[in-house]
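Subject: for your reference before the review

Hello V.,

The reviewers asked for a structural picture of the protein, and I figured it would be easier to keep everything in one thread rather than splitting it across files. Below is the amino acid sequence we used in the manuscript, unchanged from the supplementary table.
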Amino acid sequence: MLVINNVAKVAKGHQEISVFYTEMLNEKSTFEKGKQRLALQNGDLGLTSSRLENDIITAAVARLQSDNTWLWIIDEPSIKAFLTTN
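And here is what came back from the structure prediction:
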């Protein structure tokens, strides 16, 4: 799994991603309200996106697993405050 944020930091693997979200939650970050777009699927890959009220567009890619659940493999979150300070 890979997380990319607005300040060009990249977190790869369970440990780095866990640290990223732990820090984000500790900062009491807020999420912008957005309009979820229809997901696109091509084989075992899915693309989701949202347009936020400030016109920022988020994107995420997931892979369909053998148990029919989805595992996020690329995520570009937009989290107010946290991403602008870290």
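For the response letter, the relevant points are probably these. The helical segments are 13-26, 82-85. The chain is about 20% helix and 45% strand.

Happy to draft the paragraph if you're swamped.

O.
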